[in-house]
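Researcher: Go.
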Amino acid sequence: MFGAICAGQPVQTNLQALSPTQYTFTVPSIPPFNHLVLFILPGTVLPPDTAAAVYIRLAPGESFALLGAIGNEKPSAVFRIKRGDGGGDEGEGGDAMTDTPAAGEITLGISIEAASALAPRLAALKPAPPPSTLVRLPPSTKVLAQRIITDAFNFLASFGGSGGAPPDAVPLKSFRDWWAKFEKRLDADPGFLEREAE
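Model: Structure:
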């Protein structure tokens, strides 16, 4: 019904049936592995509205921890194993992780369960998204004023000294043209002043 692959080890097909809905794989913890794949063998179909919950026990005598699930819609999954002995790694990846150190043999448990009963437990495995640490504050009034004046100066400087006027003189019509252009841009893109100049 199921197969398992532990990274660096051969495919496991030595499934032991504990009951019609519960199965286990026993795999050696040496050589150590950080990932395992569990899959439904071709030709196997789970009963409707069920899923195969995947559990792991890293050492005899410990309790099983839920890793995730596979089902007819998702017939395989890669699980990342985080071990307290340094054999695992951290970061995003598989469906879940455990913090228990490995010793001797590792037992994978598979339990055919109602999908509706399993869904809330699977949702609890997924960590909440981290809050956004980057908060962009709007620029201060001083910075906005500096950007407005810079924009006006650059526009009006292009008209300085034209038409026989002194070099620092700018026609009032040019200022009105800048103001009309500035208002249109502000209407089209109200946030353009809040972005740094490119």
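Model: The chain is about 25% helix and 25% strand.
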